[in-house]
Amino acid sequence: MPPRLQLTSVTIGAPAPRELAEFYARLLSTEVAATEPAAPGEPPGAGWAQLRTTGDHGTVTLNFEYEAHYERPVWPSEQGRQQTMEHLDIWVQDLTEAVAWAVECGAELVSHQPQDDVRVLLDPAGHPFCLFR
Protein backbone atom coordinates (compact mmCIF):
# COMPACT_ATOMS: atom_id res chain seq x y z
CA MET A 1 0.00 0.00 0.00
CA PRO A 2 1.42 3.42 -0.91
CA PRO A 3 2.16 5.97 1.80
CA ARG A 4 -0.39 8.70 2.48
CA LEU A 5 0.48 11.83 0.50
CA GLN A 6 -1.40 15.12 0.46
CA LEU A 7 -0.71 18.09 -1.77
CA THR A 8 -0.76 21.25 0.38
CA SER A 9 0.47 24.15 -1.73
CA VAL A 10 2.12 25.50 -4.85
CA THR A 11 5.40 27.41 -4.59
CA ILE A 12 6.25 30.10 -7.13
CA GLY A 13 9.80 31.34 -7.60
CA ALA A 14 10.29 35.08 -8.01
CA PRO A 15 12.95 37.78 -7.75
CA ALA A 16 10.81 39.68 -5.18
CA PRO A 17 8.53 37.10 -3.54
CA ARG A 18 6.95 39.28 -0.86
CA GLU A 19 6.04 41.89 -3.49
CA LEU A 20 4.55 39.20 -5.73
CA ALA A 21 2.54 37.79 -2.81
CA GLU A 22 1.09 41.28 -2.23
CA PHE A 23 0.03 41.42 -5.90
CA TYR A 24 -1.79 38.07 -5.67
CA ALA A 25 -3.33 38.95 -2.30
CA ARG A 26 -4.82 42.10 -3.83
CA LEU A 27 -5.90 40.29 -7.01
CA LEU A 28 -7.60 37.49 -5.06
CA SER A 29 -9.00 39.74 -2.30
CA THR A 30 -7.15 37.97 0.49
CA GLU A 31 -4.24 38.73 2.81
CA VAL A 32 -0.66 37.58 2.95
CA ALA A 33 -0.69 34.97 5.73
CA ALA A 34 3.05 34.77 6.48
CA THR A 35 6.33 36.34 5.40
CA GLU A 36 10.02 35.96 6.07
CA PRO A 37 12.59 38.69 5.37
CA ALA A 38 15.61 38.33 3.13
CA ALA A 39 18.35 36.10 4.52
CA PRO A 40 21.75 37.64 5.29
CA GLY A 41 23.56 38.41 2.05
CA GLU A 42 20.39 38.37 -0.08
CA PRO A 43 18.95 41.50 -1.70
CA PRO A 44 16.26 43.39 0.26
CA GLY A 45 13.45 42.09 -2.01
CA ALA A 46 14.30 38.45 -1.27
CA GLY A 47 12.58 36.36 1.37
CA TRP A 48 9.42 34.27 1.36
CA ALA A 49 5.66 34.81 1.63
CA GLN A 50 2.48 32.78 1.71
CA LEU A 51 -1.20 33.41 1.10
CA ARG A 52 -4.31 31.25 1.22
CA THR A 53 -7.51 31.60 -0.74
CA THR A 54 -10.75 29.89 0.17
CA GLY A 55 -13.81 29.80 -2.04
CA ASP A 56 -16.31 27.60 -3.81
CA HIS A 57 -13.44 25.61 -5.33
CA GLY A 58 -11.72 24.89 -1.99
CA THR A 59 -8.62 26.29 -0.32
CA VAL A 60 -5.42 26.95 -2.24
CA THR A 61 -2.13 27.91 -0.58
CA LEU A 62 0.42 29.83 -2.62
CA ASN A 63 4.01 30.18 -1.44
CA PHE A 64 6.37 32.70 -3.03
CA GLU A 65 10.07 32.02 -2.70
CA TYR A 66 13.18 33.95 -3.69
CA GLU A 67 15.01 32.79 -6.81
CA ALA A 68 18.50 34.30 -7.05
CA HIS A 69 18.82 33.56 -10.76
CA TYR A 70 15.22 34.14 -11.80
CA GLU A 71 14.63 34.64 -15.52
CA ARG A 72 11.31 36.07 -16.64
CA PRO A 73 9.47 33.51 -18.82
CA VAL A 74 8.32 34.30 -22.34
CA TRP A 75 4.67 33.91 -23.35
CA PRO A 76 3.91 32.38 -25.72
CA SER A 77 6.98 30.20 -25.51
CA GLU A 78 9.88 30.70 -27.90
CA GLN A 79 12.69 28.28 -28.74
CA GLY A 80 15.81 29.05 -26.71
CA ARG A 81 14.05 31.41 -24.25
CA GLN A 82 13.00 30.83 -20.66
CA GLN A 83 9.91 28.61 -20.68
CA THR A 84 6.90 28.90 -18.40
CA MET A 85 7.18 26.15 -15.81
CA GLU A 86 3.67 26.52 -14.39
CA HIS A 87 0.73 28.86 -14.44
CA LEU A 88 -2.27 29.53 -12.25
CA ASP A 89 -5.84 29.07 -13.50
CA ILE A 90 -8.28 31.42 -11.79
CA TRP A 91 -12.03 30.99 -12.20
CA VAL A 92 -13.97 34.25 -12.61
CA GLN A 93 -17.64 35.11 -12.83
CA ASP A 94 -17.24 37.97 -15.32
CA LEU A 95 -14.21 37.74 -17.60
CA THR A 96 -14.22 41.37 -18.77
CA GLU A 97 -14.53 42.71 -15.23
CA ALA A 98 -11.85 40.33 -13.93
CA VAL A 99 -9.36 41.31 -16.65
CA ALA A 100 -9.88 45.00 -15.83
CA TRP A 101 -9.34 44.27 -12.11
CA ALA A 102 -6.18 42.24 -12.80
CA VAL A 103 -4.72 45.04 -14.91
CA GLU A 104 -5.59 47.56 -12.18
CA CYS A 105 -3.74 45.34 -9.70
CA GLY A 106 -0.62 45.36 -11.88
CA ALA A 107 -1.05 42.49 -14.34
CA GLU A 108 -0.41 42.78 -18.07
CA LEU A 109 -2.84 41.41 -20.65
CA VAL A 110 -0.85 39.63 -23.37
CA SER A 111 -1.63 39.95 -27.05
CA HIS A 112 -1.68 36.19 -27.78
CA GLN A 113 -4.99 34.81 -26.49
CA PRO A 114 -5.45 31.15 -27.48
CA GLN A 115 -9.10 30.75 -26.36
CA ASP A 116 -12.23 32.90 -26.46
CA ASP A 117 -13.31 32.14 -22.88
CA VAL A 118 -9.84 32.44 -21.28
CA ARG A 119 -7.58 35.46 -20.86
CA VAL A 120 -3.85 35.08 -20.35
CA LEU A 121 -2.16 37.78 -18.29
CA LEU A 122 1.30 38.21 -16.78
CA ASP A 123 1.90 38.95 -13.12
CA PRO A 124 4.53 41.59 -12.19
CA ALA A 125 7.31 38.95 -12.30
CA GLY A 126 6.20 37.75 -15.75
CA HIS A 127 4.48 34.48 -14.75
CA PRO A 128 1.47 33.88 -16.98
CA PHE A 129 -1.86 33.17 -15.32
CA CYS A 130 -5.25 32.46 -16.85
CA LEU A 131 -8.63 33.91 -15.98
CA PHE A 132 -11.46 31.71 -17.19
CA ARG A 133 -15.23 31.37 -17.01
Please tell me about this protein's structure:
The protein has 133 residues and is of the alpha/beta class. The protein has two domains: 6-69, Signal recognition particle alu RNA binding heterodimer, srp9/1 (2-Layer Sandwich), CATH 3.30.720; 71-133, 2,3-Dihydroxybiphenyl 1,2-Dioxygenase, domain 1 (Roll), CATH 3.10.180.10. 17% of the residues lie in helices and 32% in strands. The protein contains two helices and eight strands, in the order βαββββαβββ. The strands form two sheets. Strands 1-4-3-2 form a four-stranded mixed beta sheet, with helices on one face. Strands 5-8-7-6 form a four-stranded mixed beta sheet, covered by helices on one side. A hairpin with a 5-residue loop joins β7 (118-122) and β8. It is globular and about 45 Å long. It starts with 9 loop residues before the first strand and ends with a strand. The mean pLDDT is 94.
Outline of this structure?
This protein has 133 residues and is of the alpha/beta class. It has helices at residues 17-27, 95-105, and strands at residues 10-14, 32-36, 48-55, 58-66, 88-91, 108-109, 118-122, 128-132.
